[in-house]
Design brief:
- By secondary structure, this protein is mainly alpha-helical.
- The protein has one domain.
- The chain has four helices and no strands.
């Protein structure tokens, strides 16, 4: 029995390590997207001021890069417990009750993330079918949806993982 329990804990730790590593890679790629957005903005402003010629479609590129960056940061933020919480109402609660609230919030957040990612798949499919493009660059709109969809699926997995961890903490105490 003890060996089964330690194997189960080891599986959780290995999966948690893999999830953490994957989330860090996503956050790193989100950081690169944000850096690209900043550089586009700098070069566009410089071009506008010095040459009276900004980068055409700069706001479209920045919009796409920021969407990718924001989606990419969410899984690691959730794993690191970095979401905004109002502790004012929970300061006098026991750790068990706080874990129950954390488990419930992880479950609800996971369901919402799954719903968003599944709806984004349908949205991206429609944009692909109808060949929707950005106004100035004529860039296909469905393309930046792909990394955001992957980020939301990773967020879903992270939420359900933290839900299981919190449930295990509740059951152990």
């Amino acid at each position: 029995m003890f060996k089964e329990k330690s194997t189960e804990i080891s599986l959780y730790k290995n999966f948690g390590h893999l999830l953490n590593l994957t989330s860090r890679y996503f956050a790193f790629l989100g950081g690169i997207a944000l850096l690209i957005a900043a550089l586009i903005s700098i070069f566009s402003i410089f071009g506008r001021v010095v040459f009276s010629s900004p980068i055409i479609g700069d706001f479209e590129l920045i919009e796409m890069a920021c969407a990718i960056a924001i989606g990419s940061f969410l899984p690691l933020c959730h794993l690191k417990n970095g979401n905004i919480k109002v502790d004012y109402f929970t300061t006098k609660l026991s750790s068990r009750n706080i874990n129950i609230l954390d488990a419930a919030s992880s479950l609800v957040f996971g369901l919402v993330a799954f719903f968003f990612s599944s709806r984004m798949i349908l949205g991206a499919k429609d944009m692909y079918v109808y060949q929707e493009e950005t106004m100035l660059l004529a860039f296909p709109i469905w393309v930046p949806f792909l990394p955001v969809i992957l980020s939301f699926f990773l967020l879903t997995i992270c939420c359900f993982y933290t839900f299981i961890l919190k449930i295990n903490e509740i059951l152990e105490h």
